């Protein structure tokens, strides 16, 4: 834990030094560009990010691990083939405690073959030894205090006024600082463009009044998407908050994620 924090602090210092000393003109240009016109985000013409506040919620109780969300994301956002994902689904298996141990639970096993797109193998433990199992979709956590933004030396990664955390590929230099800084493992370096990539909530869709692809295809409505500034009638986000015990991942890190979960176990990481 302390090692991770120290590493992020170090990256932040390096990023600040680079931004302030080596590439200050580039950083200023990048920040000015994204603040004015969202250069490469794919936002609809005339879209005003100050009038929206996007949020995502996930009900793990509803997720069946079909992987359609990960598959749709790959196709919609042209994610490279192979082990690269903007969203994926993990399977958690909690085993029963050893007899006489006095423990409330046993070992936690986590797997995610092919991002969950093609199903899961039989558990490594017999079914009679499983206490609980469930699926957890993962994606960018839309942090209020984003470590990735803090360490980017050129301002390519930035917080949009509508709550999205975006990357402008025109300014990304592929240094990988943001990938190392993300505590949720939500970023990767594209083998094609050599720039950082991550979930954008399908920004090109939501700024045109559409849902993210992963939300659109979910057969069980495990993913809930909404706009806090423009709630819909019988707003699903409000209902999600009212009907569930809501949690965020790794709250102890102080990143204040804006992706919220229901039905997850304390072992989810």
Short summary:
The chain contains eight helices and ten strands. By secondary structure, it is of the alpha+beta class.
- CATH topology title of the domain at 2-58 and 140-262: Alpha-Beta Plaits
Order of helices and strands: HHEHEEEHEEHEEHHEHE
Strand content: 15-25%
How many strands appear in the DSSP assignment?
Answer: 10
Q: Average pLDDT, to the nearest integer?
A: 86
The CATH architecture of the domain at 2-58 and 140-262: 2-Layer Sandwich
Structural features:
269 residues, alpha+beta, Alpha-Beta Plaits, three-stranded mixed sheet, three-stranded antiparallel sheet, 10 strands, disordered N terminus
Describe the structure.
The structure is a single chain. The protein has 269 residues and is an alpha+beta fold. It has a domain of 180 residues: Alpha-Beta Plaits (2-Layer Sandwich). 26% of the residues lie in helices and 17% in strands. It contains 8 helices and 10 strands. A 3-stranded mixed beta sheet has the order 9-1-10, covered by helices on one side. It is globular, with a radius of gyration of 19 Å.
């Amino acid at each position: 834990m302390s090692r991770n924090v120290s590493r992020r602090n170090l990256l932040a210092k390096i990023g600040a030094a680079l931004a302030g000393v080596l590439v200050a003109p580039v950083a200023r240009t990048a920040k000015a560009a994204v603040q004015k016109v969202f250069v490469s985000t794919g936002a609809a013409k005339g879209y005003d990010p100050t009038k929206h506040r996007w949020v995502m919620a996930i009900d793990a109780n509803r997720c069946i691990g079909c992987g359609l969300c990960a598959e749709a994301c790959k196709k919609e956002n042209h994610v490279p083939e192979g082990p690269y994902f903007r969203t994926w689904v993990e399977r958690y298996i909690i085993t029963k405690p050893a007899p006489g141990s006095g423990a409330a639970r046993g070992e936690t096993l986590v797997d995610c073959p092919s991002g969950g797109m093609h199903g899961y193998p039989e558990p490594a433990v017999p079914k009679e030894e499983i206490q609980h199992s469930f699926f957890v979709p993962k994606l960018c956590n839309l942090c209020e205090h984003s470590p990735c933004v803090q360490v980017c030396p050129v301002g390519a990664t930035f917080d949009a006024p509508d709550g999205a955390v975006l990357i402008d590929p025109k300014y990304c230099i592929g240094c990988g600082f943001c990938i190392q800084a993300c505590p949720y493992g939500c970023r990767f370096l594209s083998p094609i463009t050599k720039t950082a990539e991550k979930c954008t909530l399908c920004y090109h869709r939501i700024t045109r009044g559409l849902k993210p692809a992963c939300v659109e295809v979910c057969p069980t409505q495990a993913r809930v998407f909404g706009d806090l500034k423009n709630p819909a009638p019988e707003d699903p986000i409000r209902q999600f908050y009212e009907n569930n015990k809501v949690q965020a991942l790794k709250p102890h890190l102080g990143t204040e994620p804006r992706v919220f979960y229901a039905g997850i176990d304390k072992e989810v990481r």
